[in-house]
User: What shape does this take?
Amino acid sequence: MQPPEKEEGAAPEAEVLQALSRGDHKQALTLLMGLYGNAIYSYCRHMLGDEALADDAHQTTFGQVFFDLPRYRGQSSLRIWVYAIARHRCMDMLKMSRRREQHIESRETLPEVEAPELSQEERAVLGSHVKHLTRCLDALPEKVRDAILQRFMAQLSYEEMGRLSGERAATLQMRVARALPDLRKCLEAAGVAR
Assistant: This one.
């Protein structure tokens, strides 16, 4: 799994902090959404396995970000702060889903691949790989899947992950290290990895 590329056109966190210091919370939110909006949506999509739930979690996350911006004290980076909010919203939604005993559907629904330079055959292969990776991630326990996504999708360090989850960095590092061989075996069984 390769880390995602940085979102283009993203304003640096310094601009967000300047907007906050001016009391311009709308501008701060706009900048934060530019910085982390796509990455947060992707994180939510992989955590929840459902596009509609991911949309809700994404909107709820940034709604809470806007509401809490006046209370942001800089105890962590804005990136970690936003991811923490997203993680909590995803966990809340997963708990609600379990309580209602709803089976999460459409885990196999894939985002459209935006790569016009790829042939139709290449797109089919890429879509198949994403489908198999999603299945393999879904097979992992929730805590393990969360750690894998934080490490490789959100590109968080183990220390940042620890601050986010309240767990020790070493515990999270071990969790990821133990999960990677299982993830690789799953992908190999699907014919994706060698």
User: Anything to note?
Assistant: DSSP finds eight helices and no strands in the chain. The domain at 8-102 is CATH 1.10.1740.10 (Rna Polymerase Sigma Factor; Chain: A).
